[in-house]
Design goal:
Number of helices: 0
Distance between the termini: 41 Å
Radius of gyration: 16 Å
Number of strands: 9
Helix content: under 10%
Order of helices and strands: EEEEEEEEE
Low-confidence stretches: none
Largest sheet: 5 strands, antiparallel
Shape: globular
């Protein structure tokens, strides 16, 4: 298997103790309003998240000494109550991939709801 990873920058929620929740696309609507991805047969898309509190020694930046471990997107609520959030997307394709762009796994839209506690 070939694995490729994409990392987002840290997002400052501007809240000290927010709660996070996954938000998937509602397939019953025309507009894409939530997380939507494509994983053709034999490939995979895995979304991971982590969070960190504010660094009091360098305010406005995440304190990486207290960052959580990478957690599955579906479990993002378990890493709430920290000011910063970051996501990572792992794309996996088989070694027999034929380089047809239509067969590439992709993420169309990624949404994490940030709520005030």
């Amino acid at each position: 298997m070939n694995v490729s990873q994409g990392f987002a920058r840290w997002t400052n929620t501007q809240l000290d103790t927010p709660s996070f929740a996954p938000h998937y696309d509602d397939l019953g609507t025309v507009a894409v309003d939530g997380t939507s991805f494509n994983a053709p047969a034999g490939s995979a898309v895995d979304i991971w998240v982590r969070s960190a509190p504010n660094d009091t020694a360098n305010t406005g930046h995440p304190n990486l000494n207290f960052a959580t471990a990478w957690t599955r997107y579906d479990d993002v609520g378990t890493i709430s109550r920290r000011r910063f959030i970051q996501y990572r997307v792992d794309f996996t394709i088989p070694l027999s991939y034929d380089f047809n762009i239509a067969n590439l796994p992709s993420v169309d839209f990624l949404r994490i709801d940030i709520n005030l506690n």
